[in-house]
Amino acid sequence: MAVKRNTIYTISYDPGVGGFPSFYSYQPDWMIGMNNYFYTFNGGDLYRHNTNETRNEYYGVTYPSVMQSVFNEQPLDNKLFKTINLEGDDSWGAILTSDQQNTGFIENDWFEKKEGAFYAFVRNSGQTSTNPANPNQYALRSLNGIGSSSDITVVGNVTTVDFSTSIYLGNIISIGDMFYFGSPSPTLLGRVTAINQDLPAGINNIVLDNSIIGAQPAPTTQEYMLYIKNSVAESHGILGHYSVFTLTNNNTSKIELFSVESEVMKSFP
Asked: ω into residue 135 within 30 of 0, thus cis?
């Protein structure tokens, strides 16, 4: 577990590795080993450790198990970290960060057991149905271009963006996506509420809700239009040369974790 500044931990020394491999959340006033048992004092009370089946409970407080490590093969290559695969007997929640993103995560109950291991896609919390994207998401494959608008109409909280009938809106864009304009720095215009495409009738537009947080006024000139899908639903993973992963488990019974793997693909600019 990473040590934060101004945070107090109890640490243990392992002569076999010649270092301090573990950090503990409990804080004893005094500790002693005697007769093959480990004892600590807290608030004037005496506690004997490792004598019951309840794990991670100290002085009446239950703490999670937290483990942190890094995927760092081929560190010169920029990569997409797509999945987490746990070899063990229980699933863990996961948070992933890299040198380029800090928004990767997996909830504990999203893992599926496949061939004796727990498997899940890495989600990205940067873009959801209610929150706009972070700037570092623009480099991901979640941003899709449409083309230049032919006209923009704003009536109250509704913005209608018209396109030439020669532009195909495609079938990837959907209601709930965030809509942007401008390049190279996209500006949030609104959230998609309707997609109207009837080319024989000359109808080719996208309707937006411009009242969402972060939406900016519509441009007065023709602009290049883009959209970003919901990152949690689309499971793009996170981008980076390496990925630091932090696993958390709240189980109070004995569990084992043997290895952690990730499906990684090289990112080509």
From this structure: no
pLDDT tens-digit series, residues 13-52: 888 889 888 888 888 999 898 998 999 999 999 999 888 8
| Contact status, residue 148 vs residue 182, Cβ threshold 8 Å | no
From first CA to last CA, the distance across the chain in angstroms is 33
- The answer to whether residue 132 sits within a structural domain is no
Domain range for residue 75? 66-127+236-266
Quick check: pTM over 0.90?
no
Q: How many residues does the chain have?
A: 269
Burial 26-38 (b: 16+ CB within 10 A, else e): bebeeeeeeeeee
What is the count of structural domains for the chain? 3
Same domain, 25 and 157: no
DSSP 3-state assignment of 135?
helix
